[in-house]
Design goal:
Blueprint lengths: L24 H37 L1
């Protein structure tokens, strides 16, 4: 049997729910600080490690 649906409104658009809520402004600032600290340590830690190894080698050479 045929049913006439021409007068019916279309169904509402389906949108998936976000997987997790967005970060607040405070959380975004902390995340930015953590990323900056990690980038600085990425540059400074190898230099510091090389300096300590060089100091230990010099200490044990004598």
């Amino acid at each position: 049997m045929f049913m006439d649906f021409r007068d019916q409104p279309p169904p509402p658009r389906w949108e998936p729910r976000p997987l997790r809520p967005r970060l607040s402004a405070r959380q975004e600032r902390w995340l930015g600080r953590l990323v900056l600290a990690n980038m600085l340590l990425l540059l400074l830690a190898p230099i510091g490690g090389a300096t300590l190894i060089d100091a230990l080698l010099t200490l044990f050479r004598n």
